[in-house]
Structures are given as structure tokens and as C-alpha cells.
């Protein structure tokens, strides 16, 4: 079986990981992770306390080499959520950076220190890496955000990790010469699987910033970095900084690829970055259970507001409420995205009922609503549970209204939801963070602004003003918290 990380097996001396002033080549990572793999081998599962550090990356790679499923744990997890994840996944061990104080839920487990030091055989002979596990073997158990109940553990097989990363190699022309820069958390798909395992599978390298900072982004992209991964909040900060930071503009202009994910990047931020740098940010679409489904291709048209076309090996369809296929490519007809392919998870841990409910005839129900443009590009309009508004007989996606609102000069942040209405069924509600708190745009002005660019029935009927929108660690707006 071909290895998940060929450059580790070949013990390449090219750079692999850099976190601050700590760094490892692929050969050094093979030694460090190989030594740690012997210590965790035989465990049923291990938890990794996923701080944004070199030790986290070494710990995850070690477990994958040993064929032990990894449960990445968010260090910012609340007590109830953490207790649920530990009880549900029942890890045998916890891997963490030396010296880190663990919460009681994990401190009771046997602990293995995630060090970046190898322990080769006498004479400098490296410890051989373990045999490659089966492609169907579990690689990671990643917990969902738990917006509709306790988080569910999505069991991701090794084939899903390999399939997604190889499909992105095709879509992004990702090679061993690429140096990825990012500051994403390492407890979820974006930062860990794409942002760490992706460069390792390609034989390239990643430079993790620890925390996001536009000066650090500029520094790394002007000293060898070729790719930048971020979430919309990060790119918004980039867009805000660009007018007064020519060094940042030059750095971004020189990057080979700028990728945004985990939530939709507002169109006005796309435009500001493109105007300042001449480079366009591309978006991709995925989720915990499916890894990556679509992406704008590096050799395609980077159109703002779309998440591109299905990746190699991924089948995608839109369906109506009765699961009948929506065949329209008109940019208007909304349907739920369903996908199937080698990128899918195998099950929700300990939840056969939830696993069965998530599929229909082998297709995974994503719960995301989208339209398809005439050229096949997919545009996400929101979540079925929170972003599909049924008003006056129309199905309205919140996402396109949010993008239009964000183009208004008086709007800094915007979210759109639906509320019960005795006449319309649901009315469109806009939640606005004004650009200037002392002079917020009026509800009438915002309604006219939307109606001038979209159909009149999509205008907000109610406007509510906030100081900030509630967001999670990945920058996604928590819409249920708005109504709460």
C-alpha cells in the first residue's frame, strides 16, 4: 500500500514543519513521529490536545503512522463539550506538548509528551516506520460544531484524507515546492487536514504563524511562502489593512494561491483584495463529514461568490425537499447539496441512527443550500436549517442578501435570518453592525439597497442593529445565538 506521507517514508531532507523558531525536515519528522508512534501503538484511540504548536503536528502524524485514530481536541472547549467528547470517544491516551496543564477531563488519562526529538537506533540508524494501515482504517475522529445538539464524532478513514488532498493537488496544482502559510487552529479539518497533512502529503512545507497577524503574513509570503490559507475573518483583516500597508499588498501579489474557507468570503472583501493586489482569493467548499467537495480551480475563473466545481472523484447533486434532483443551471433555483465519493466519512461514532439519517441512497445530505450557475459553478446560499427562508412562496438564501448588504458603505457586518410572519410565512430579518455606530443606515435605506440589486421579495422587512455578530472559532456566524 502506498504511504499516506511519501516524503516521510523517503526521509526527505526538505523542510516540512515550522512553528515559530521550531522546525523539522521530513526526515526529522519521520524520526520524531516514528519514535512517538512506538509509544502510542496499540491504543484504540488517542486524544491530541490540539494547541497550534509543533508538538500537535508531531503527535497527529505519529498516531497516523501507528494506525491509531486521532481525536483532535479544541483547547478552547467548554467543560460540558469536553466531557462529552472524552466520554464519547473514550481515548486510551492523551498526547500534548510537554508542560501544558490539561483540564481534569483529560488529566486523568495516561499522558504521552509530544516532543520533536527522534530516538534513532545506535549509530544514527533511524527507527523504521510502521507498515501502512489499510485505506479504510479510521484516521481521525473529528467532532462537529454541535449546533443542533451535542457534537458528533465523524470517523474519517485514511482514504478520505488521501482522496481530498490528492483532489486538491489536481485543482490547485499543489506541489512539493509549495510553502503554505497559515494561522488556523489544528483541531479541525481546515487547519489540520488541509493545512498540515496537505503539505506533508505533497512533500512540501507549512509555516504556522501561531496566531494571525498581517505583518507575519507579509513576512512569510515575501520569504518563500507560496500559498495562504485563511477564514473570512482573516481575509477581512487583510482587506482592512491593505490600503495602508504596501508591503502586505506586494506580498499577497507575489503569492501563488490565496484560499479562503470554512465560511463564505463576502464579495466586497474579494473585490478589495483583488483591487489592491491584482490577485483573487479562491474559495472551496467542504465540511467535517465530507472533507472537500468543490473548489475554484487554479486554472479556472476565480469568480467571487462561488465555491467552484466538484473536485476530482466527488459526485454532487442538488435536490428538492423530496430528494428529487434539481437539474436547473440558472443561478436561481435553490436545492440542497448532496455528495458521494471517496472523501466521505464512514460513520458518526456511537450514533448509528444519526449515520443512517445522514444518507439517502448512498448520497450524504449536507444540509447546505446552493444554486448552480450556467457554467456549473456552485454558489452556496446558506444552511437549510438556518439560512433557507420561505417567504411569500419564495425560497430565499440568506447568503446572497448578506453579500449585498455588505456592499453598503454603512455596513461593517451583516447576517440574515428568517422569522415567523403571519402574512408571508417568514420575513427576512437583517442583523447589522454599522460601520459608524452613531450613524447607522436606516431600515428603509437597506431595504432599497437590496431590492435594487436582487428581487424585491428578498429585501429585509426587519433590521436589527448590534455591536458585533456572534462567531465561533472558525469565524462562522452563530445564527442561533442571534435569536437567543
Automatic annotation (TrEMBL):
Residues 400-476 form the AMP-binding enzyme C-terminal domain. Residues 9-349 form the AMP-dependent synthetase/ligase domain. InterPro entries: AMP-bd_C, AMP-bd_C_sf, AMP-binding_CS, AMP-dep_synth/lig_dom, ANL_N_sf. CDD domains: MCS (cd05941). Belongs to the ATP-dependent AMP-binding enzyme family. This is AMP-binding protein. It comes from Streptomyces hebeiensis.
Amino acid at each position: 500500500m502506498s504511504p499516506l506521507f511519501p516524503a516521510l517514508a523517503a526521509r526527505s531532507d526538505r523542510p516540512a514543519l515550522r512553528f515559530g523558531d521550531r522546525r523539522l525536515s521530513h526526515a526529522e519528522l519521520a524520526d520524531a513521529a516514528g519514535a512517538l508512534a512506538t509509544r502510542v501503538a496499540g491504543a484504540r484511540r488517542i486524544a491530541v490536545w490540539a494547541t497550534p504548536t509543533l508538538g500537535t503536528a508531531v503527535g497527529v502524524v505519529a498516531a497516523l503512522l501507528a494506525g491509531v485514530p486521532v481525536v483532535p481536541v479544541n483547547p478552547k472547549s467548554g467543560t460540558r463539550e469536553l466531557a462529552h467528547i472524552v466520554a464519547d470517544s473514550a481515548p486510551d491516551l492523551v498526547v500534548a506538548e510537554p508542560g501544558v496543564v490539561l483540564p481534569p477531563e483529560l488529566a486523568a488519562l495516561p499522558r504521552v509528551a509530544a516532543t520533536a526529538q527522534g530516538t534513532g537506533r545506535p549509530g544514527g540508524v533511524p527507527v523504521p516506520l510502521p507498515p501502512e494501515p489499510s485505506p479504510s482504517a479510521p484516521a481521525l475522529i473529528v467532532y462537529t460544531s454541535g449546533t443542533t445538539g451535542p457534537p458528533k464524532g465523524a470517523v474519517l478513514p485514511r482514504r478520505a484524507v488521501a482522496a481530498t488532498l490528492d483532489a486538491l493537488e489536481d485543482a490547485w496544482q499543489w506541489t512539493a515546492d509549495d510553502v503554505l502559510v497559515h494561522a488556523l487552529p489544528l483541531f479541525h479539518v481546515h487547519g489540520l487536514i488541509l493545512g498540515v497533512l496537505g503539505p506533508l502529503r505533497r512533500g512540501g512545507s507549512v509555516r504556522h504563524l501561531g496566531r494571525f497577524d498581517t505583518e507575519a503574513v507579509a513576512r512569510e509570503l515575501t520569504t518563500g511562502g507560496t500559498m495562504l490559507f485563511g477564514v473570512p475573518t482573516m481575509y477581512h483583516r487583510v482587506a482592512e489593512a491593505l490600503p495602508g500597508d504596501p508591503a502586505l499588498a506586494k506580498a499577497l501579489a507575489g503569492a501563488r494561491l490565496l484560499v479562503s474557507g470554512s465560511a463564505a468570503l463576502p464579495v466586497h472583501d474579494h473585490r478589495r483584495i483583488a483591487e489592491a493586489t491584482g490577485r483573487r482569493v479562491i474559495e472551496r467548499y467542504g465540511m467535517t463529514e465530507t472533507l472537500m467537495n468543490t473548489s475554484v480551480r487554479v486554472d479556472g475563473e476565480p469568480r467571487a461568490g462561488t465555491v467552484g466545481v466538484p473536485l476530482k472523484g466527488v459526485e454532487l447533486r442538488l435536490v428538492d425537499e423530496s430528494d428529487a434532483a434539481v437539474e436547473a443551471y440558472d443561478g436561481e433555483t435553490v436545492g440542497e447539496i448532496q455528495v458521494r465519493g471517496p472523501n466521505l466519512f464512514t460513520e458518526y461514532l456511537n450514533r448509528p441512527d444519526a449515520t443512517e439519517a445522514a444518507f439517502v441512497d448512498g448520497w450524504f445530505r449536507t444540509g447546505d443550500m446552493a444554486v448552480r450557475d450556467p457554467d456549473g459553478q456552485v454558489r452556496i446560499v446558506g444552511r437549510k436549517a438556518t439560512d433557507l427562508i420561505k417567504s411569500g412562496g419564495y425560497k430565499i438564501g440568506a447568503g446572497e442578501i448578506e453579500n449585498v448588504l455588505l456592499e453598503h458603505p454603512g455596513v461593517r457586518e451583516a447576517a440574515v435570518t428568517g422569522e415567523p410572519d403571519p402574512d408571508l410565512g417568514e420575513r427576512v430579518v437583517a442583523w447589522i453592525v454599522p460601520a459608524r455606530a452613531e450613524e447607522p443606515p436606516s431600515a428603509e435605506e437597506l431595504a432599497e439597497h437590496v431590492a435594487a440589486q436582487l428581487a424585491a421579495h428578498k429585501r429585509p422587512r426587519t433590521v436589527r442593529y448590534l455591536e458585533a455578530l456572534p462567531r465561533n472559532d472558525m469565524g462562522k456566524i452563530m445564527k442561533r445565538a442571534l435569536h437567543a
